[in-house]
Inverse folding.
């Protein structure tokens, strides 16, 4: 194979795959069988980070960027005049193995444009995974894209070789999807997702009886939604996420701030900024739902369908529920400590451990890792707390914003930053 | 004030701790011979001879009180090479003997324990980074070779990770600062301590023929997977601090 052409293909197909947010290599647990290559563990490893600050854990590429669909938001859409390329199965396998041996990556994330039809494409993706597992004895991480409309048989096979499968919802609302990707429909996406969900549940049952049941998509499923390409609100987005977490047992929902790549009258103009702050607030809400015991309805309601960009969603909840504060650090239950602004999961756990040994004061809190500049207004210490007088102050929100500097501060100012 | 001098090994440290209790020293410091400079001329010197059975007895007792996980934390403190490491470990052992029913490592409101917890966090982070940032380069003799220069002595903590992962290729990871490494030759996976510093002259000429190709491909991939519109160098450097760049293939 001509090296320069291979290099060019890698450039084209990595470039086309980069808008897929997920790069997680976690949730799997493959042990290295004796004398083979690779393993994967529950925690995953980020091997490097690109200059946009995103983790690189997997070799994330498309098998091909030839595509029969013409989705408005996608660089690889059929009507877009770009360089096209396609890898052979052997090339993908060789790159994966050789990158893995050098400890560049945890494994492969393989997606593809849709050529001919769904099943032909899915079959080719499965073939790569199968070759890696069976011929190369590869036990690293494999994430395959489920192609909308792929048959149950192919999904079954995919789940036997891949750790994670994902299918992108792309647009949070069905009406938005109809507008931007008229050839796609939601049901084609849901069917493979449902099939895998049932398969995983069945695997768990069988595993109780037969210890050697072959693994079935052990790292579960995830999905991705583009934020800001259509006019949906944040409440709709987190409701969709919540629905998929509950009804499809998804491991992760990713939010991808729309990067304007194409001129199209259905889309925001090319000069629109990537909505990074909004994306960040959505991830914070997602974390609140998954790790902090918040319900979707608590984060937003129909009267307030957008997330506050000035303060994080947990703070926003606290400001709307001042009656629940101050919280007594010594006696409150873990769930309530988690709801104090400025206290995260690890700090909350440490507080619950440490308070068994002694009465905690504000200095302890600082040392335990809390963001005291925010937390101090919401806590009742046994020794008293002078900051509590601000809890009823009308300007509490201003005080809180003033007391911390946002990494997104430049998004609020209209001034051009030159350096 | 009594100064206990030990040989710098983990067992030596725990032999010393045993002897602190054995001789009932109250005002005491434990220092490795290598680091010892006589500052306090009135200090009484006590030379400790490493005895595994003494170390074993302390560790067994500790395991009953704070579990295997607790001992692993103390090992991390030891590997941190922090100037206070010995004192912190001694303090933890003393507290654990005093309150055997409690896992004293969770008493985060105690200053020494909190320091231990912070050191453990730093060492764990460095360990994790080494599992991520090690870059193997294939040499002519088919050995995949990696150079590292970690802030803490984490090589003993990453051996298992690499041993489990790479079983069908020969590999070597070498700590340039501490001058020792791990070698896996398809059978054994052991530490080795060369007498002389490793000669890295003309190192790249000893690359396997295919090495340059894969390095180029990886560098191109790294460049192309970046989204220029979302550039965020601050975050990039936060995740990949500059001191690691010199051994990262993609940051050539």
């Amino acid at each position: 194979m001509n090296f320069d052409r291979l290099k060019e293909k890698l450039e084209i197909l990595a470039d086309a795959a980069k808008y897929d947010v997920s790069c997680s290599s976690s949730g799997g647990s493959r042990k290295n069988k004796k004398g083979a290559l690779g393993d994967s563990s529950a925690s995953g490893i980020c091997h490097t980070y690109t200059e946009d600050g995103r983790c690189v854990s997997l070799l994330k590429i498309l098998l091909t960027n030839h595509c029969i669909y013409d989705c408005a938001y996608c660089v690889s859409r059929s009507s877009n005049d770009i360089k096209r390329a396609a890898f052979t199965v052997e090339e993908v396998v060789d790159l994966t193995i050789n990158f893995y041996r050098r400890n560049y990556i945890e494994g492969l994330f393989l997606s593809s444009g849709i050529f001919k039809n769904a099943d032909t494409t899915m079959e080719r993706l499965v073939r790569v995974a199968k070759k890696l597992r069976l011929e190369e004895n590869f036990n690293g991480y494999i994430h395959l894209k489920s192609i909308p409309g792929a048959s149950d048989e192919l999904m079954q096979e995919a789940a036997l070789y891949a750790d994670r499968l994902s299918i992108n919802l792309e647009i949070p609302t069905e009406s938005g999807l109809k507008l931007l990707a008229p050839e796609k429909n939601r049901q084609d996406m849901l069917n493979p997702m449902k099939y895998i969900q049932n398969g995983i549940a069945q695997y768990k049952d069988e595993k109780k009886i037969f210890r050697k049941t072959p693994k079935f998509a052990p790292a579960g499923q995830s999905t991705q939604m583009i934020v800001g390409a259509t006019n949906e609100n944040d409440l709709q987005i987190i409701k969709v996420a919540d629905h998929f977490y509950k009804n499809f047992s998804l491991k992760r929902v990713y939010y991808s701030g729309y990067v304007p790549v194409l001129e199209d009258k259905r889309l925001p103009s090319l000069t629109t900024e990537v909505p990074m702050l909004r994306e960040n607030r959505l991830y914070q809400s997602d974390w609140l739902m998954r790790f902090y015991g918040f319900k979707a309805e608590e984060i937003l309601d129909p009267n307030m369908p957008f997330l506050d960009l000035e303060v994080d969603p947990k703070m926003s909840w606290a400001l709307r529920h001042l009656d629940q504060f101050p919280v007594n650090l010594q006696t409150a239950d873990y769930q309530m400590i988690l709801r104090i602004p400025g206290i995260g999961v690890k700090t909350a756990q440490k507080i619950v451990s440490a308070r068994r040994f002694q009465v905690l004061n504000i200095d302890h809190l600082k040392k335990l890792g809390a963001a005291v500049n925010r937390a101090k207004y919401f806590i009742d210490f046994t020794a008293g707390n002078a900051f509590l007088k601000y809890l009823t102050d009308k300007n509490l929100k201003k005080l809180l914003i003033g007391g911390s500097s946002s990494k997104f501060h430049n998004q609020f100012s209209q001034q051009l930053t030159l350096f | 004030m009594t100064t206990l001098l030990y040989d710098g090994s983990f067992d030596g440290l725990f032999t010393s701790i045993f002897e602190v209790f054995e001789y009932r020293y109250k005002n005491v410091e434990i220092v490795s011979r290598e680091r010892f400079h006589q500052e306090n001329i009135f200090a009484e010197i006590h030379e400790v001879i490493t005895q595994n059975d003494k170390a074993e007895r302390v560790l067994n007792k500790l395991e009953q009180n704070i579990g295997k996980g607790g001992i692993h934390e103390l090992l991390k403190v030891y590997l941190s090479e922090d100037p206070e490491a010995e004192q912190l470990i001694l303090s933890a052992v003393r507290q654990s003997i005093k309150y055997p029913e409690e896992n004293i490592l969770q008493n985060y409101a105690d200053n020494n324990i909190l320091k231990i917890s912070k050191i453990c966090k730093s060492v764990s982070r460095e360990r994790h980074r080494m599992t991520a940032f090690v870059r193997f380069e294939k040499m002519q003799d088919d050995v995949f070779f990696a150079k590292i220069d970690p802030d803490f002595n984490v090589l003993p903590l990453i051996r298992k990770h690499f041993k489990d992962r790479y079983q069908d290729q020969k590999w070597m990871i070498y700590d340039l600062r501490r001058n020792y490494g791990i070698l896996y030759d398809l059978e054994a996976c052991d530490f080795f301590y060369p007498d002389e510093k490793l000669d890295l002259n003309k190192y790249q000429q000893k690359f396997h023929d295919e090495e340059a190709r894969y390095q180029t491909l990886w560098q191109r991939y790294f460049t192309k997977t970046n989204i220029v519109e979302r550039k965020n160098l601050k975050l990039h450097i936060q995740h990949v601090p500059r001191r690691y760049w010199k051994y990262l293939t993609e940051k050539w």
About this structure: The CA atoms of residues 10 and 78 of chain B lie 7 Å apart. Residues 52-79 of chain B form the longest helix (28 residues).
